[in-house]
Design brief:
By secondary structure, the protein is mostly helical. 77% of the residues lie in helices and 4% in strands. Among the domains are: 47 residues; 38 residues. A hairpin with a 2-residue loop joins strand 1 and strand 2. It is flat.
């Protein structure tokens, strides 16, 4: 029984090898056909190639003249400005249901001002706790911020 199965496997293997060889030959045939079609197309278009290059050269030359011209640059520049203006939310026809971004900036500024004011108060109260009394002289260590020499010369 084992010899029958082994022979069956050998026959299946031989059939698979033959199928693979047939597929490989068919694939090679299609590759040869593709190369022939490519050569025919190249030979057909090679006669028209100089004319196509000449026409496209004129087209691109005219296109560069238009794209670099002052009117086109002016129109593109203004289009960019208008797009940025509309996206910034400053345009009056913009969606009015959204919050006004100007008030957001103001509120953010007020919050930051309050935080810095609170931090200065904290530093002052901390400084008052560290007051050293020597006779009539009281001192508090404070940070002295001065401009550097290079900053003074640039002003």
């Amino acid at each position: 029984m084992d010899s029958f199965e082994i022979n069956n496997v050998k026959v299946e293997k031989a059939n698979a090898i033959l199928k693979h060889l047939h597929l490989r030959k068919l694939a090679n045939l299609f590759r040869i056909i593709e190369i022939c079609v490519l050569l025919v197309m190249v030979s057909r278009f090679s006669t028209q190639l100089p004319l196509a290059v000449k026409n496209s050269g004129k087209y691109f030359k005219d296109l560069t003249v238009v794209l670099v011209g002052p009117r086109f640059v002016f129109i593109i520049g203004n289009a960019i400005v208008v797009i940025l203006f509309v996206q910034s939310g400053q345009f009056p026809a913009h969606d009015s249901s959204r919050k006004n971004t100007g008030s957001d900036y103001y509120e953010e500024f007020v919050e930051k001002s309050k935080k810095t004011e609170n931090s200065h108060r904290y530093e002052q109260s901390k400084c008052q706790k560290n007051v050293v009394s020597v006779g009539t002289h009281t001192s508090c260590k404070t940070k002295i911020c001065r401009r550097s020499q290079s900053e003074k010369s640039s002003l």
